[in-house]
Amino acid sequence: MWFDRSARFDYVDQPRRLALAVPNKFVANWIGRHFRDEINNAARQELGDDIEFQLEVNPDAFLTTAEPIAAAKPDPTGPISIKWGGRPAVSDADVPARPVGVPSAPTTAGSPRRASLRHRLEDFIVGPSNELAYAAAQSILNDDDAPTSPLVLHGGCGLGKTHLLQGICRRLTQRHPGTKVMYQSGEQFTNEFLAAVRTNKLDQFRRKTRKLDLLAIDDVHFLANKPATQREFLHCFDAVEMGGARVLLACDSHPKQVPQFSEALISRCVRGMVVQVHHPDADTRVRIIRALARRRRMDVSDEIAQALAERCSGAVRDIEGMLTKLHALASLSRSQRGLGTETGDAGAPGGTPIGFSLVDRLFASDFGTRNQQPAGIDSILTAAIEHTGADRTQVLGTSRHRDAVLARSITAYLARKMTRMSYPEVAAAMGRRGHSTIVTAAQRVEKQLTENPELILSNSNEVIRLRDLIDRVKRTAAQG
Q: Which of 336, 371, 406 is the last residue of a domain?
């Protein structure tokens, strides 16, 4: 980060001297405080103890960039005052993962990063796990004031949050070409803000971010533990909303659960609408598999799609990775056979046919074992309690409370599916004297799965199918 493009080494043999040129005092201050001893030791090991090391500020050595680095030298009267051995006004936690001195690529407020908007709203597959998030995001497109602004989408990685953000930005710019939309990640916002501070161009940065119709920030949790950036983002947040613009954010977890998020920023986020995006259920996974397979020109039958959905219960990115590997296996099989289709498959013209033999090869590899890790009874019980909202004492006791019975039954069912424990061993682990109730509970779940009834979770009031609830518990238990 600090030596790739923000440092230049120069060795002089007579006298023996190793010089390190940096573009400004900020970099000199940082390298001097953190790496001076390491550089000295490395130089002596390679060149001998009599080598002289010199650290110098030389902006002229970096004039090959798009903008003269000499302009990046801090103004003593500006927001950063640097002394050798001192600390900059911007905290170390705000240092971006980009070499200091390399100017950030400019973003025009009226022309979003179209190269980054690769997702389309038309390709988004809507299901019970994301229909509320999709509807809330759609309301951003309304011409009237969106009651959902600010909208915060949160959930695990690879569940479609970025797809929704980019799709909304892309659709809005297509409908209204003159609309001022900014789509950025939390890291990009941080980097551009710090670059503006160091180059004394904070006013220009603020003018660009204040005159918007839509501000969309992905991975906003990146701002955690960055108080200076959070303060600037908070001012930008307020100014944008006061101007009538809408704010769309994506985060890995609920804003209240992001560590070291300021109370002011949390209050702004929860003032609008906070929606969680869940893992897709079985039916949604089938539709996702079909859509992605068509995009890859893969001939996937209904039976194959169902089999893949049952054996891959992860996020959308997991499904994408599974299909990518399956497509590679199909291409390899066809090239080895010298055939256009696999034996026993009815292929579509121009498509890559997929048969059960390829599916078995796929899940016999490390992909399958990675998604079906062995789990213990304690992990299964903890996951069942977490997702049903039941009380642990009631589950392990004799309570007939609905949540306790549900968690107990799912635990008994999955313990037989995911472990090698016998019914008596499962009963003993759950504090039961006999195993007859465990047998009854597991068989009851097995029978109910054929009907797949809808359930209402007490801890979240979410309506979910039994099979999807079991998938969630199974996935959580497998992760330990």
A: 371
